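thread: overnight batch results

M.L. [08:02]
morning all. the overnight job finished for the chain we discussed friday. pasting input first so we're all looking at the same thing
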Amino acid sequence: MIRKIALFGALAPVAVLTFAPSGQSRPTKPPTEAAPPAAPATPLASLVRASNAMGFARLRASKGDTAFSPAGVTHALAPVAPGTQGYTRAELLRGFGLPEDDDQVASALTEYLGDANKDEEVFSSHTGFLLNGDFPPTARFKSALTALPACELLTTEATPGYFFGLFGGSDGFRSGEEAIAAWLKKHSRMSLSLDEARALMPHKIAKDDTWVFTAINANYFKGRWKIRFDKERTWQEDFFSEAAPGKVAMMNETSTEFIAGDMDWLPGYGADKPKHPMPTAEGPISWRTQLEYEESLNAWPRHQYLRMRFDDGKRSMIILLPRWDRQSGQSPDDALAALEKQLTGDALSNTLERIRTDGVPANVQVKLPKFTLRAQHKLLSRESGAPQGTAPFTMQALTNPLISDFSPMSAAVAGEWIKGKNVVLGEVTQICEVEVNEDGAKAASVTTAHGISVGCCAMGFEQTAYEFTADHPFLFIIQDDKTGAALFVGRVTQPVANAAQ
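M.L. [08:03]
and the structure it wrote out:
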């Protein structure tokens, strides 16, 4: 069983961020009027908020370079909801910000999926659901499942000697493990090693555990930049990191199509005063004092963001770069950790929404390293029978066999009680990879969620270029521009180490 994140790949995403020196103007935004009273959140807005929060919670729970797809987990667990009831259903839906009504759930997930699968060469998302042949689905569950977007019920039949049954026996696979691995590779276009494929399969905790169901999701995205980088201008440049400082392959481009600026809305922004105090009207103010003050303001580090749009006009990549100064005495890694702590709750939602809606194109000089990340996450496991993981995967009504209720999924679930057992969500695993180069970005993820039966005793204008130089650790997001949903999120701290692999 995988118990820690494994990272693979070549180069991690590195954005280059510099701060505008005196004489350089920062991108400006049009004046905004007072906002009207906020309307009640729609099911889609609640789902996006909960899914994005889950993605950043996973980043904070992970160490070092990583990549994760909150959209992959959302789609993988969506088919589980129609097979639950009572506290289990309420807790699962609440964890993803979804309403109780099945039709509203399907509608929100359809909007969340957006235009996925319309052009599978750009973005696709497929979800499959398998049930043990000894647990035939109820008619209501089967109907609700097939009403979900891009979701299919994959048939199985009991096969002695294999943990899974065959996919109806028509694909010619020797075992269910091979069938699942082939399905995931087909839809994600990822190259899965045998060990990685095995990590995605359910694992028995006790000899009398019974596999009941598996929900699987595969996401694939490949986008070309609206403004592509000139390969002739990719040079070796410095990247500052506590773990692995050194030279990286840094892409360079200047364009009026980039969107960048300071995250001056974050709590505590500008709380530290610049070196020179604000000149006052009391007494004479020398030109030197005024100049020193203006220079200190321009040199003062800001949290910065960069948004680069893809040529499909529907998605973009966001880079979040923390405030850091080489003379500050703070390590760049600690600066990123401090920014991550700020990006929770309303601050996270507000940041992503403002970047998505308020940013305007400006003349921006971008330095962004090429990178490739590959990460493996065990989001939920049952070590020694006890659930271990990060929210919302440790919710009691999903993982505690004394109170979980998956009976709407199959009539046979109720029969497990006769044996002194009950069905719980046992494991959630994801493998995710992201690659960024001069042409664009490619990302993919595969996610599996397993249900097992366990003993019930277990628990735009011309201006001077604004410089964006990410020469220290940062975060990245690939998002849907219409909904604001984060499809993939990640962290880069050691691009040099990744480049060497």
